[in-house]
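Run log, item B.
One chain of 365 residues. Sequence copied directly from the ordering sheet:
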Amino acid sequence: MLAGFRRTNCVSSRAGYSIVELMLAIGIIAILIALLLPAISRARGIARDVVCKSNMRQLGIAGASYAVESGELIPSFWWEPGSSPSQWAGLNSRMNHPAADSLDAAQVQATDILRRRTGRGEGVPPFKIVHNRLRYPQRKFTHLVLLDYMDTPLPDPRAACPEDRRLLEWASDPLELSNVPSVSDNDSTTETRIEVRQRWAYSSTYQAAPASWSPDTRQGNKLTVGPVERFYNLFTRIDPALRLGGREYTEVNFPGSKVFFFEFHDRHSSATPAFYAYPEARSNQLFFDNSVRAERTSASNPGFDPNNPSSVAPAVVYDPAPGAADPPPLHDPSGDTLKGQYRWTRGGLRGVDYGGAEVRTGDNG
């Protein structure tokens, strides 16, 4: 009887938890999850930032190798009018047009790279890559020269920051254009055209500073590439007599202080993406010494207008259209007025972005 009593008592001591105990356990687990989720999110954000910096560093390493093989040339579109380097006769005919200039040649080279590296050179649009003579290819596509040099198919994941989800979505299916911006306003008058929209999947999070592919300042009355003050996305057209590309690393006076590539939008330092020119932005930046840093924009020099080199930094209005690829303004929905900063370094390649006062090398342009 005693033994039986003990067995019964043992069984009753293993009875399930009470409702109160279960609720307490669930509450503790919920608190732990609430404490852990932000840490997990931060860890993932840090990991994506590391990948982003690694992408930029690989572009820098490729650029250094490119320079060794090309005689110190900074990677950029380098084809010249009057030649026939493409396998597509239609592209060569544009290179040999009597009025063709180095911008026409750059546009042809960009189309040639896209066709070769995607296998989309034949057939009909939207499958075939249509030649685009509407814009500077250097702004969103300088990276194509490096990826072509690295002999890689397109799209290549190194062109996109892991936080640039829209670009990654476009790149996951380049033939799907239903999710690609199609807007028409004063800032983006050509977004509706197929030759623009089909290129979004092959664009990059990272843009090259214009001085890396255009003259530092105007040459007499011949304009170089410069900002259009009202439109953050537009550049002045270079004079046909001047050359695009062909700049050399030896022209960079302060490689550790001069930005080469930069994230067009800061996607890491806060929950809201910010256009690089906002003072509080900390976009990742690849410098000419191949270091990658996320310097605060407010710490950089304000920059200048290469076509008015003795001027103060130009005012650029950031006002992307609703539905465009760029995030909205941080403050004024109709557009925030900002300075050009390291996109338009005073003195171009000879100037300084961080760590010293502006070098007024361009004032005699």
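Observations after the first pass:
- The chain has one domain: 39-350.
- Residues 1-12 have pLDDT under 50 and may be disordered.
Flagged for discussion on Thursday.
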